[in-house]
Design goal:
Layout: H1 2-9, H2 13-46, H3 55-61, H4 64-97, E1 98-99, H5 103-115, H6 118-129, H7 144-167, H8 173-180, H9 185-213, H10 217-222, H11 230-239, H12 244-278, E2 286-287, E3 291-292, E4 295-296, H13 300-325, E5 327-328, E6 331-332, H14 335-338, H15 353-382, H16 389-401, H17 410-420, E7 422-423, E8 426-427, H18 434-456, H19 460-468, H20 473-502, H21 507-510, H22 518-526, H23 531-558
Parallel strand pairs: 1-2
Antiparallel strand pairs: 3-4, 5-6, 7-8
Transmembrane segments: 12-36, 69-96, 108-129, 135-159, 196-224, 244-265, 300-323, 363-382, 394-421, 433-455, 484-506, 534-555
Protein name: Thiamine transport system permease protein
Subcellular location: Cell inner membrane; Cell membrane
């Protein structure tokens, strides 16, 4: 029987060629539109006259400005990661371990900030913290604390979803046994529950650090150059000083820092996936208990922290952004939204905000199609489980390679496009496709990480059984993998579309003056003086946030049971 199974599951030459092509097409896309531009950008810094010159490394590293930027990057990222974990653990417990009316709605709302465009997040917090804002009395506008708060706002959902998905499946009997032996609730959590959650906590922390270290729009809008990071410094050195050597050195430094986070995230993710597979598929939730006999219930503290975070950190900035968009010099009304059909005060824009919104939608649609096709092919290949150690290592390398766009500055990618894709047969500088392709490069890792857990959840015995019964490899793929893949594509499309819609780093370099995207228009309006331009920026941010939130809410309804994490 085993011999028959091996004979039937052995791939034909045509099937093997198909899998080679499935891996080759994404690799060709990554090579042409990521590795080549980034390598060329770095080479411009280290090979200025065609000769290797490493003197720039010592020169850049000898600057106090460089070490200040590195310190701010690491400090902001570590602080924001720690705060996000501390606030996210109670949220994961309440939203995934407990049942209450409206839980699905709160889960969906908590996810929205993660996919909001970074420029919108920056505008929302600036409007809240400026001197005339409701929190202006704190005096933290443009400070380290303001940037950290915005980064936590952006990544809170990542912690809640990642930790909550595992916490939901933990067997409660271990903690109950510790409590019955006299352990306090805190001691039972610290000695029993927290060690079981460690893979999820480490995985979430590594990814949050990764996103914080590579944040561009939030830092540029909130902290400016005073609290600039490596990402924003690459932008400054490239656009203002035209110092490609410094930009190249900083890009390599960022890749080293983020590469370490990617390595940690990869190892933590493997432990995390293993922990999820060991847990029962059924949910181990119970009703939320806020009251006990004459005292607060055991869930009261976690629910209180979650309520404060959701209302104070998530709802307040978005609500004030909406309120600000309705406030005009003439009073309350829709004047700012009506002005979106103009080019702003003193012709601040080259096109209207509505035209920019259409540009964003068109680019996001094209980028989503490209990212979903490339990302799905990668996920299908990486989800295979070859018997040979060499095959497993090759798939692991392929998976890691397609995470690289998360670790390289989007500014580096955008500028790399300009200096590489400028001559036949790939002269794209005047093409409308250059922006969607750059956005797809950024979105592909998210598609892979969204679809891959769904495909890895398939029991390989299902494929073997179908092959033993005579199904061809194509039919096995269609009938076994297909239904699972469809379940994962809903959220993958939502993530790809939302990320492309709000992408700012590479798009700020590549969008043409006559066809800017909405994030670029918002950033330009913020930089122009006048209440009229600022009001338009708030209104445009509301439009962009509404589009993004609508897409993600729809994607949440289409997600499968295994789509609880990023």
């Amino acid at each position: 029987m085993d011999r028959d199974r091996r004979r039937l599951t052995r791939r034909s030459p045509a099937g093997a060629l198909a899998w080679v092509l499935a891996a080759g097409v994404p690799l060709a896309f990554l090579s042409v539109f990521f590795l080549w531009p980034v390598a060329t950008m770095v080479a411009r810094g280290f090979l200025p006259d065609g000769v290797l010159d490493l003197g720039g490394i010592s020169e850049v590293l000898s600057r106090r400005r460089t070490w200040r930027v590195i310190g701010i990057t690491v400090g902001q990222s570590l602080t924001a990661t720690a705060v996000a974990l501390l606030l996210g653990l109670p949220g994961a417990y309440v939203l995934y371990r407990c049942r209450f009316r409206g839980r699905r709605l709160v889960r969906g709302f908590v996810t929205v900030p993660f996919v909001l465009p970074t420029v919108v997040v920056g505008v929302a917090f600036r409007s809240l913290l400026v001197e005339t804002g409701p929190l202006g009395f704190l005096g933290i506008d443009g400070t380290f604390a303001a940037v950290v708060a915005a980064l936590v706002f952006f990544n809170y959902a990542l912690v809640v979803r990642t930790v909550g998905a595992l916490w939901e499946r933990l067997d409660p009997r271990a903690e109950e046994a510790a409590r019955s032996l006299g352990a306090s609730p805190w001691r039972a959590f610290r000695t029993v529950t927290l060690p079981a959650l460690a893979p999820a906590v480490v995985s979430a922390g590594a990814v949050v650090f990764l996103f914080c270290a590579t944040s561009f729009g939030v830092v540029l809008t909130m902290g400016g150059l005073r609290y600039g990071t490596i990402e924003t410094e690459v932008w400054v050195q490239t656009t203002q000083f035209l110092d490609l050597r410094a930009a190249a050195v900083l890009s390599v430094l960022q890749l080293v820092v983020v590469g370490a986070a990617l390595l940690l995230a990869s190892r933590a993710r493997r432990r995390y996936d293993h922990s999820l597979h060991l847990r029962a598929d059924r949910s181990a939730t119970r009703p939320l208990r806020l009251r006990g006999p004459g005292r607060p219930g055991p869930d009261a503290a976690a629910a209180a922290v979650t309520a404060v975070v959701v209302l104070g950190l998530l709802v307040l900035p978005l609500a004030h952004l909406l309120a600000g968009s309705l406030r005009t010099p003439e009073g309350w009304g829709l004047g700012n939204f009506r002005r979106l059909s103009t080019t702003g005060g003193t012709n601040a824009l080259t096109v209207t905000a509505w035209e920019a919104a259409l540009n964003s939608l068109r680019a996001a649609v094209d980028a989503t199609v490209i990212a979903v096709i490339v990302g799905t092919l990668v996920a299908l290949v990486v989800s295979r489980r070859p018997r040979s150690p060499g095959g497993r290592r090759a798939l692991g390398v392929l998976d890691a390679v397609f995470m690289l766009p998360l670790g390289v500055s989007a500014v580096t990618v955008g500028f790399g496009f300009l200096i590489t894709l400028d001559s036949p047969p790939l002269d794209l500088r005047g093409s409308a496709l250059i922006v969607p392709i750059a956005q797809a490069v950024v979105a592909v890792p998210l598609v892979v990480r969204t679809v891959l857990p769904v495909l890895r959840a398939i029991d390989p015995r299902l494929r073997e059984a179908a092959a033993v019964l005579g199904a061809s490899p194509w039919r096995v793929l269609a009938t076994v993998d297909g239904p699972f893949l469809v379940r994962g594509l809903g959220l993958a499309v939502g993530f790809a579309f939302a990320v492309s819609l709000g992408e700012f780093g590479a798009t700020s370099f590549l969008s043409r003056p006559e066809s800017p995207t909405l994030p670029v228009v918002i950033f330009r309006l913020i930089g122009r003086p006048g209440a009229e331009n600022y009001g338009m920026a708030l209104a445009a941010s509301v439009v962009l946030a509404t589009l993004t939130a609508g897409v993600m809410m729809l994607a949440e309804r289409l997600r499968g049971d295994r789509m609880g994490t990023w």
